[in-house]
Write a structure and sequence with these properties.
about 170 residues, mainly alpha
Length: about 170
């Protein structure tokens, strides 16, 4: 196989395996740095970071076509990092919502207005997530993870198409 054929496979492996493991490791380092005790909650938060790394990597893979159209390296790396951050936070939020509302049993919807109950519970839980997660992701874990993801997944610039010389007119 050629190096060009190995590039998409390497991107998939990095997005699906390396980035979630790296996210979990950085999240665990941040928990240790904060001096928190390792309980079920901290293990669960570390796993949630792995889910976020998977979601961010998948979003970058889904948008690989438009991202590869950027010819210059710096803008491509910057946009890839921002797309990864958006996917990372969205996947962590989705995992947190599923856990709090569906798994932990902290939700009791009103039978007559069930959809409204779910919507308000989701909004409240999302706000709780957005308030409680920044101490774990900032100042260094999320920027470092986004930089690593952008460096791994941005890939080389697409090669320019060769221009064929025009045939001489007779």
């Amino acid at each position: 196989m050629t190096e060009a054929a190995d590039q998409p496979a390497a991107r998939r492996v990095q997005a699906l395996l390396v980035l979630p493991a790296m996210a979990m490791a950085l999240f665990a380092l941040r928990i240790v740095e904060r001096g928190e005790i390792w309980l079920d909650r901290t293990y669960w938060l570390t796993g949630l970071a792995g889910l976020g790394g998977l979601g961010g990597g998948l979003l970058v893979l889904l948008l690989a076509g438009p991202l590869d159209r950027l010819r210059r390296t710096a803008p491509r790396i910057l946009v890839t990092g921002l797309v990864f951050c958006a996917g990372f936070i969205a996947a962590m939020l989705a995992g947190y919502l599923v856990y709090v509302i569906a798994i932990s049993g902290q939700f009791e919807g009103r039978p007559d207005r069930y959809l409204r109950s779910v919507a308000f519970a989701s909004m409240q839980t999302s706000l709780l997530f957005l308030v409680s997660v920044p101490p774990y992701l900032l100042p260094w874990p999320l920027p470092l993870l986004a930089g690593c993801a952008a460096w791994l997944l941005a890939g080389p610039a697409p090669a320019a198409k060769p221009v064929e010389p025009a045939s001489p007119r007779v």
